[in-house]
Structures are given as structure tokens and as C-alpha cells.
Write a structure and sequence with these properties.
There is one protein chain. The protein has 329 residues and is α+β, with helices and mostly antiparallel strands. Among the domains are: 70 residues, Trypsin-like serine proteases (Thrombin, subunit H, Beta Barrel), CATH 2.40.10.10; 92 residues, no CATH class. The chain has 5 helices and 20 strands. It has a 7-stranded antiparallel sheet. A 6-stranded antiparallel β-barrel has the order 8-9-10-13-12-11. The chain has a 5-stranded antiparallel sheet with strand order 16-17-18-19-20. It is globular and about 60 Å long. The relative contact order is 0.13. The mean pLDDT is 91.
């Protein structure tokens, strides 16, 4: 029996959900997002902010637009100054997060998260914040950093929260991309656990060395991933068993006797790995798993789910983790 969603929970989630409006390059644009609290930098700490899809807000937009957030008719304008806000923006994960630490946000409603999502979990999304209408469904698979579920994600739901029916906490962020695994048409959300892991890595640089950031007159802005590595860097990766591919962001640990290949993807804050070959340069298809200190080495989803790579690749993953941002920015 599914838990009913209480009026109080619906009201809280609706008050945390917002419409995002801004003008960029002389065009008016809009999308959806929501407010939440993340356990960052560590599990006993809290960082509150706005989260949405990277397709709605990205680095160019957040620093070059005045953004209006509308919460059931109440408007708040964001004019972001880098020194006042930590921002995470990644097209690969398809997530943008903006820290909201200033006192003017103290009276706003921020949702909490549940990192312990599993297969067959019952979930829902808010289809209409004003009328508090919802759509329910089930998580049928966890595929890398993605949650595949049965709720139809329409354009106006992109950037909104995927909520656990068990405890009314956020388990994912809805995106527009459909997963292509096994020819199904399931909707896709980004697992909140993977989002937290990614933001923690970038925030660690923000706190300690700013290696992942470019200094501006009014603060620090996240660097772009280094699209092309020089020959010296490519040779260093080759010495550790990584071969380049047609996509400059993807490297391959080739198969050998009794060892299956792995693919590795570079972002501007971390490496990701997968045992699933990208299809026709489709970097979004595989079940990508983030590399971070103390990370799990188990595959998430697919025929190898729950298994660890061969020792050779485990050593490679640990080495990439220790290399920090050397081959990323």
C-alpha cells in the first residue's frame, strides 16, 4: 500500500518549487527549479540553495542574467555576484546548483534529501504547484547516476524534484533526456546521491585551493573542462593504461585476457567510469559512476551491476582519484 501524500507535505514541496524566468541574449527564457538543503561539505553540515537542470541554467546564464524566481506568485530576483554564491554547473550531469546563504533567503522553504533510494521505490512529482497536483510512479532501475522511473516528464517538469512517497524527501532532479537502455521509454532523473558527491568535490576545491575556479574581479567562477589535453598529458594517461578516443573527453582502458574494457569521462571536477560502451559517441547512454575519495567501486546498473572491475582497473581508478584536477581543468 502506497503512503498517501499529506496536505502539509504537498504544501511544503509546492512552496519550495519555483518558476525560473530570465532574459539571455535578448530572449526570454523560463524553466523550473526548487529549493533544498544538501549535506555539504560533510554529512553533518548543511548547504541550502536552488537546484535545476543545466539545460535551464548554466554558467553563462547565471552570471549574465537577472534571474526571477516565482513561488506561487511571490517573486524573488537573483542577481548573482560570484563572491557571494558558490555555484556548481555541469552539462554532463545536467545539474546546476546555486548556494543561497544570504539572510534574505532565511524565510524560504528548503526541502531535505534522501540518499538511500533503491529500485522499486515509489515516487512522485508535483505537476502543478499552485493546485498541488501530483503524478506517482515507481523507480524501476538505477543506471549509473540516473534514476529510471515510470512518471512522464513533460517539458514543464524539467528541473523539478523527484520525491520519495515514503518520506516526502528529494531523491532526484528531473531532466528531459530519456534513457536508451533496453529500448525503453522510461523517464530519467538524476540521483540526488550522485549530485551530492559531485558538488562536494567541487566545493572542496572552492574551500581549499580554488584549482577548479577562475578568479574574477568580484570572486571565483567555475572553470570549463579542458577540452583538449596536450601530448604530454595524453602520454601520461597512456602510461597508466588509458587510451584516447574520438571524443576528447572519453578515454578507454582496453580489454585484455579475462579483463573487460572500461570507459572514462572527464568533467571539470571529477572523472567518471563505466563498463558500458558509449553508443555512436552518445556519452549520455552508459551507466557512469563518479570517482571520488572513498568511492564505491561497484557497477551501478546493467549486467555487471554490483560487481567490481578487475584489479588492474581498480588500481587505475584509485590513481585517477589521486590525480585530482590534473587532467580536467
Amino acid at each position: 500500500m502506497q503512503n498517501p501524500v499529506s496536505k502539509e507535505s504537498l504544501n511544503s514541496i509546492s512552496r519550495s518549487t519555483c518558476n525560473i524566468d530570465y532574459t539571455f541574449e535578448n530572449q526570454k527564457r523560463k524553466g523550473k527549479g526548487f529549493l533544498l538543503v544538501l549535506p555539504i561539505p560533510q554529512s553533518n553540515d548543511q548547504m541550502r540553495g536552488l537546484i535545476t537542470s543545466n539545460q535551464i541554467l548554466n554558467t553563462n546564464i547565471i552570471y549574465n542574467s537577472i534571474i526571477t524566481l516565482s513561488f506561487n506568485g511571490n517573486e524573488t530576483k537573483l542577481n548573482l555576484i560570484p563572491k557571494e554564491h558558490f555555484c556548481f554547473s555541469d552539462p554532463f550531469l545536467d545539474i546546476t546548483f546555486i548556494e543561497l546563504k544570504n539572510p534574505e533567503y532565511d524565510g524560504m522553504n528548503f526541502l531535505t534529501v534522501d540518499e538511500n533510494v533503491n529500485n522499486s521505490g515509489h515516487v512522485y512529482i508535483i505537476k502543478d504547484s499552485k493546485d498541488e497536483k501530483i503524478s506517482k510512479g515507481i523507480i524501476i532501475n538505477i543506471w549509473g547516476f540516473k534514476l529510471l522511473h515510470t512518471i512522464s516528464i513533460e517539458e514543464d517538469s524539467v528541473g523539478s524534484a523527484l520525491i520519495s512517497l515514503k518520506n516526502n524527501k528529494v531523491v532526484g532532479v528531473n531532466i528531459s533526456k530519456q534513457n536508451k537502455d533496453k529500448n525503453n521509454n522510461n523517464s530519467t532523473s538524476i540521483n540526488i546521491k550522485a549530485i551530492i558527491q559531485a558538488i562536494r568535490l567541487l566545493y572542496n576545491s572552492y574551500l581549499h585551493n580554488k584549482t577548479a575556479f577562475e578568479e574574477k574581479e568580484n570572486g571565483f567562477i567555475q572553470k570549463e573542462v579542458k577540452l583538449l589535453l596536450n601530448d604530454s598529458k595524453i602520454n601520461e594517461l597512456k602510461e597508466h593504461g588509458l587510451m584516447s578516443s574520438e571524443n576528447p573527453l572519453i578515454f578507454i582502458s582496453p580489454k585484455s585476457h579475462f579483463i573487460t574494457p572500461l570507459w572514462f569521462y572527464r568533467t571539470n571536477y571529477a572523472w567518471y567510469w563505466t563498463p558500458t560502451e558509449p553508443k555512436e559517441d552518445d556519452a549520455d547512454y552508459p551507466n557512469w559512476i563518479i570517482i571520488y575519495p572513498g568511492c564505491s567501486l561497484k557497477v551501478i546498473g546493467g549486467e555487471w551491476s554490483g560487481l567490481e572491475p578487475a584489479k588492474r582497473n581498480i588500481i587505475l581508478i584509485h590513481w585517477l582519484e589521486s590525480s585530482g584536477l590534473n587532467y580536467l581543468v
